[in-house]
Amino acid sequence: MLTQEMQHRIGNLFSIVNGLVSLSEREAAQAGDAPSATHILKDKLSALARVSSLARHGKGDDPLQTEAMDLRSILQAVLQPYGTRCTLHGDAIKVAKNEVTCFSLIFHELATNSMKYGALSSFHGLVSLDWKQEDAHLRFNWTETGGPPVSAPPHTFGFGSGLLDRLVRSAEGKVKREWLPEGLSVSLWFPNTPE
Q: Is pLDDT larger for residue 74 or for residue 129?
């Protein structure tokens, strides 16, 4: 399992970097400044490094630190490489440090799959992520638009989708996917007691 996940992560890393190179070139061309593609790419790769650090350590390097973290900050760090193509809307919510890794990996996986197959693979594609507290649950809605046409669910699910399902289950959550004509819609629910 560990070897499979490592191979999956390495494959995803190359896919993400390839997608970010293309995205950076398009953004630079749109701005009329081709040399800035390198600068744009460096910014995106730096954001990915911050997410990696966030997933490993939460806030700071102290593994015993238990301070709750701002959910919006976590999600911004995860989705920063995709710039304004990802919009965030939600309540001000704090999550426990032990949830940071799980949320970081779940939304990183959704963004990676979107970059490979969904809205983020298209220059005009967009992702909207909103969340809110519903009683003792935290609900997320991930909505993709403007990507390749969607006609039906995939025939098979890859390792990344299976990993996402396992992460959701490990957090005692639920996930529901809908393949709508305008793009993928994912709803997620997690137990969360407001502070």
A: 129
